[in-house]
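Materials and Methods. Structural model of VWA domain-containing protein. The 336-residue sequence of VWA domain-containing protein from Myxococcus landrumensis was retrieved and submitted for structure prediction as follows.
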Amino acid sequence: MPPLPAFNNPEALWGLLLVPLLFVQAWRERRARAPLRFSAANVFARSGKGLRTYLLPLLPLLRAAAVVAAVLAIARPQVRDSRVRDLSVEGIDIVVALDLSTSMEAGDFRPQNRLHVAKEVLSDFISNRVNDRIGLVVFAGAAYTQAPLTLDYGVLKEVIKQIRTRVLEDGTAIGDALATSLNRLRDSEAKSRVVVLITDGDNNAGKISPMDAANMAQALHVPVYTILVGKGGKVPFPQGTDLFGNTVWRETEIPINPELMQDIADRTGGEYYRATDPEGLRRGLQKVLDSLERSRLMEGGASATYREEFHPFLLAAFGLAALELLLRATFLRVFP
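The predicted structure was written out as tokens:
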């Protein structure tokens, strides 16, 4: 036997008291409707009642049903899952700093560019996490927090899907990105805190130097794992489109600084990885997790999980209300 739903907002059920009022209002409207007088009413009496006469009482029923469905949706019915979530879980607080400079449009990961591959790999990486809190910092000429530490992986993957280049001022502010990431981890109580820096270039912007930021990470005992994306040297870079709308590629020199990435990792106790293809980036992220010690984020007990069941009621409310308005304005329209 399937489990019975429970209501997360049971106080909303008081709204069901509106239903009798709707029927009272419909009755009063019917009584207040002006009658039409005919000199030969017996002619109409012999002709019998039409289909519309029998369907007119359906209108207040549709409106009442729509209100009932809406109230039930607002009350948020939930079904308890048979699985129980263990709250004594182990996890890591991870902030990913992702480079959004225009150089991430380079096509050495063709048929896709560097950013497209990085977003795909990050989404796969998040999908495989269970108890790790993950945040996202994006940077180009400046750094910004795109998503704070969260366990809501669905929202985080949607955020990653939306990010793109040429939104921030161009440049590669690696130091600012690390400082912003550390600021997100500053109040974390997890024993394992880590920054994963994904970039394809050298530091050429920002107010904080990369090594100063690395010193901050060292003081906070936060290892920085650096992943250098791309092959370096001359790589295909988009230069617009031709007459047929095809992307025009030109070999362009994009500077990289693997020594800086190695120094940041060494200074903070992290590791440096080089990713020249999508699989290399996946391996780098997996190695980050494999090298970390697990820490407890929550202690004790167990918690049941619940599945939301309000969606059918919400759809029914909109459908019934739309049907009532349509019939009232067309086939069941009453004159005067």
